[in-house]
Amino acid sequence: MLKVGDKLPAGTLQEFIEVEGNGCSLGPNSFDIEAATAGKTIAVFALPGAFTPTCSAQHVPGYVAQADAFKAAGVDEIWCVSVNDAFVMGAWGRDQKTAGKVRMMADGSAAFTQATGLVLDLTAKGFGLRSQRYSMLVKDGVVKSLNVEAPGKFEVSDANTLLAQATSI
């Protein structure tokens, strides 16, 4: 399992782009994780699925509300990662009003999630492989803090916890 001091696994994540520009076309665009984190401080939070109750009511809204505070703490970007496709993540981002605040990064095949070792197997419930709920602060591709939730909990991966860590690291 991924731990503090580890480099993020190589691979790609996808993001649905609403407006063409900066070398990105409309629709899903793939981003190389190593290139996207190089020289940046990224607040990453992951969750089991788009449009799910805790994720939509608490997890994403907390990061959207604290986006300016993260910037003030030196965080360049906030990423929400979920094992959903880029179209679903794009629709969820519109619903949650994340534009300009949180990048909704799709891990459609769960490749990134599997490489981190932070997999949540919800096959028995009909959801397949998903991500555990967690947050982490990443500097230049290296994990500086990692907060993994116990199953069914939402206590340590919230925006306030990661923001406090961002201001102290």
Topology, element by element:
Layout: E1 12-17, E2 27-32, H1 33-37, E3 41-47, H2 53-65, H3 67-72, E4 77-82, H4 86-96, E5 103-106, H5 111-116, E6 119-122, E7 128-131, E8 134-139, E9 142-148, H6 159-168
Parallel strand pairs: 3-4, 4-5
Antiparallel strand pairs: 1-2, 1-5, 3-8, 6-7, 8-9
Strand-and-helix sequence, N→C?
A: EEHEHHEHEHEEEEH
CATH top level class name:
Alpha Beta
SS strand fraction: 25-35%
Q: Please give the order of strands in the largest beta sheet.
A: 2-1-5-4-3-8-9
* Estimated radius of gyration: 15 Å
| Main sheet: strands, sense, barrel | 7 strands, mixed
Family: Belongs to the peroxiredoxin family. Prx5 subfamily.
Domain Thioredoxin: 2-168
Enzyme class: oxidoreductase
Protein name: Glutathione-dependent peroxiredoxin
What does it look like?
The protein is globular and about 40 Å long. It has a seven-stranded mixed beta sheet with strand order 2-1-5-4-3-8-9. Strand 4, helix 4 and strand 5 (103-106) form a beta-alpha-beta unit. It has one domain (12-168): Glutaredoxin. The protein has helices at 33-37, 53-65, 67-72, 86-96, 111-116, 159-168, and strands at 12-17, 27-32, 41-47, 77-82, 103-106, 119-122, 128-131, 134-139, 142-148. The protein has six helices and nine strands; from the N terminus they run E-E-H-E-H-H-E-H-E-H-E-E-E-E-H. With 169 residues, it is an alpha+beta fold. It catalyses: a hydroperoxide + 2 glutathione = an alcohol + glutathione disulfide + H2O. Pfam families: Redoxin. This is Glutathione-dependent peroxiredoxin. Thiol-specific peroxidase that catalyzes the reduction of hydrogen peroxide and organic hydroperoxides to water and alcohols, respectively. Plays a role in cell protection against oxidative stress by detoxifying peroxides. InterPro entries: PRX5-like (IPR037944), Redoxin (IPR013740), Thioredoxin-like_sf (IPR036249), Thioredoxin_domain (IPR013766).
